[in-house]
Amino acid sequence: MAMIVVQILLGGITRLTGSGLSITEWNVVTGALPPLSDGQWLIEFEKYKSTPQFRYLNFDFSIADFKVIYFWEWFHRVWARLIGIVFAIPFLFFWWRGYFKSHMVKPLLILFLLGALQGAIGWIMVASGLTGDAIYVKPTRLALHFIFALGLLCYTFWFALQLTVPAADKVYNQYLQKPLRWIMALLLLQLIYGAFMAGHKAATAAPTWPTINQEWIPTGLYKSSEGALNWVDNLIFVHFMHRGLAYLLLAAILFYTVQLYKQQGSPWFYHARKWPAILVLLQVVLGILSVLTSTKIIPGQWGIFEWMAQLHQLVAMLLLLSLVQLLFLISRKALGTT
């Protein structure tokens, strides 16, 4: 699971450094090795020169600049391959030796297939930025790639909880589980809008807080000419939604935490119930700092904004996992019932 967290963070670095379109092909086997000679580097650089990103944005890149962005995209892809190897070899060995219980095989196979699917979605995302006049991947496909990555992470975590948490440590309270599901649905929507923010590189469109460009209801919130596209392409609308959902999540999780502290349970439950409130508070602070430091972005340099954005993404994952853990621990049915 830790490797998946690292992979998602590498995806964030790839995005923040503008590296995602540096490799223009998806070679599952041969792509594992980077260029090993000057001639190979020139070939890859010429391929990159055919992309809209180079023609419209990075036309002044030297091959030294290209090597930097190539590294992050290559490392992101190699780490994904490494995850597959680390999973597949032990799985085949333990399966062959009969060490797995029968109920464990199917979830593990699903996990492997989800990982392969995520790789395919990643390439679909990259391909969206290689044609036309796009200088970055489409935000909707970035969101799809991000959400599927989080789904893979949550599935892995859930399976780990099934193997490690005794049934006696679960809590029976049907009234606590339903609002938790609503909070998780709200967080899912928030994560999607976070991906839209990242995909549009929208932080600089409104680098103020608590207002959006000195307005509570910002000008340009809805453009009638764009219709439904306002939900995904209007940067001010995306800002407004992302911030509004953050406040709703903050209020909902804090109120829910109060209810959790009224519930008796196991030591595992007592430990788990505090984390959503802690993480959502930290996440809001990091979100604000990401917006405020977006004015300090310097193209081609890793600075304070990039650190804030990367930490913002990490805490978002931890917040999601803290809610998944609670969902696992809070059961609608009492122990021993069907």
Per the principal axes of the C-alpha atoms, what is the gross shape? flat
| Structural class by SSE content | mainly alpha
Query: What's the helix count?
Result: 12
Number of strands: 2
| DSSP strand content | under 5%
What is the count of distinct domains?
2
Average pLDDT taken over every residue: 91
- End-to-end separation in angstroms reads 31 Å
Biggest sheet: strands, sense, closure?
2 strands, parallel
H/E element sequence: HHHHHHEHHHHHHE
Q: Helical content, roughly? A: 55-70%
Low-confidence stretches: none
Strand order of the largest sheet: 1-2
Kindly provide the radius of gyration, computed on alpha-carbon positions and rounded to a whole number of angstroms: 22 Å
Summarize this entry quickly.
By secondary structure, the protein is an all-alpha fold. The chain has 12 helices and 2 strands, in the order ααααααβααααααβ. The protein has a two-stranded parallel ribbon with strand order 1-2.
Q: What labels would you give this structure?
A:
338 residues, mainly alpha, two-stranded parallel ribbon, 1% strand
How is this fold's topology laid out?
Elements: H1 2-16, H2 38-49, H3 52-56, H4 63-97, H5 102-127, H6 139-164, E1 171-172, H7 174-200, H8 230-233, H9 235-260, H10 267-272, H11 275-292, H12 304-329, E2 330-331
Parallel strand pairs: 1-2
Helix pairs in contact: 1-4, 1-12, 4-5, 5-6, 6-7, 6-12, 7-9, 7-12, 9-11, 11-12
